[in-house]
Design goal:
Blueprint: H1 25-39, H2 46-53, H3 67-83, H4 92-108, H5 111-117, H6 125-141, H7 145-170, H8 174-186, H9 197-209, H10 215-232
Helix pairs in contact: 1-2, 1-3, 3-4, 3-5, 3-6, 4-6, 4-7, 4-10, 5-7, 6-7, 7-10, 8-9
């Protein structure tokens, strides 16, 4: 795609495509997610999207300036899906854990898209709402603004880093994924205590634990550290925010 976006008043296409769909940003994003899920990141092209939508590829320029603009919309869609149904409980720690797990789950549901989108900053509505919500949880807990921003940064980076890493694993071909998992049993499980005493002592635990993501435990460790910092400052902060 090139920079040929159609002015806003002219964007909406009223006539259905060959597939019977009326184009919109949401329809295009959902189709792009489906195509990437089926065919990988290579599916994010104007030609493939146009074919899937039953529309001339040039019609996509009514909605997105280029493929990067579409990718930002996809990234924002994943952020939005992570927030669907979320409600504050009033317990900052429980709320942050729920938000983190929702982010991880939303990206794992679309691993191919997650690998391209997890590290992007969109500035779009869903992302803005997420930033406001997380900062509101932290400021409402009593953190001063500087501390709230630093914790927000660590929390979001941890969530997205694990989301991207785990998505990359899920996107592997099944034989490669199985082979990687088998390394813990075939290689590490056979190392002797005489040469590798620490691995030998924990091999059985490693084989089990390395089958799943380390994110839930890493998130709990982060939240424990955050709670300790809050306790150290007496639970008081400069201004309280709201969670919306």
């Amino acid at each position: 795609m090139t920079e040929r976006v159609v002015p806003e008043p002219q964007r909406r296409r009223r006539k259905p495509t060959k597939q019977g769909m009326v184009l919109s940003e949401q329809v295009i994003v959902e189709t792009a997610l489906r195509l990437m899920g089926q065919h990988g990141a290579a599916a994010l092209t104007v030609r493939r999207l146009g074919a899937a939508l039953g529309a001339d590829p040039s019609a996509l320029y009514r909605y997105f300036r280029n493929t990067d603009d579409l990718l930002l919309a996809i990234a924002d869609e994943l952020v939005g899906r992570a927030q669907q149904g979320w409600r504050s409980t009033g317990d900052w720690r429980a709320d942050l854990r729920d938000i983190g797990m929702r982010i991880h789950a939303a990206y794992q549901a679309h691993p191919q898209a997650a690998m391209l989108a997890a590290f992007r900053t969109t500035g779009r509505d869903n992302e803005v709402r997420a930033v406001e919500t997380i900062l509101g949880v932290l400021r409402g807990a009593g953190f001063q603004d500087e501390e709230a921003v630093r914790i927000y940064h660590a929390f979001v980076d941890q969530s997205l880093a694990f989301a991207a890493q785990d998505a990359a694993a899920l996107a592997l071909p099944a034989p490669a994924l199985a082979a990687d998992a088998g390394v813990w049993r075939v290689r590490y499980g056979r190392l002797g205590a005489d040469t590798h005493p620490n691995i030998a002592a924990t091999a059985g635990l490693l084989i089990v634990d390395m089958r799943s993501s380390g994110y839930p435990f890493a998130l709990d460790l982060l939240l424990e550290a955050v709670a300790a910092r809050l306790a150290a400052q007496g639970g008081a902060g400069a201004g309280a925010g709201t969670t919306g």
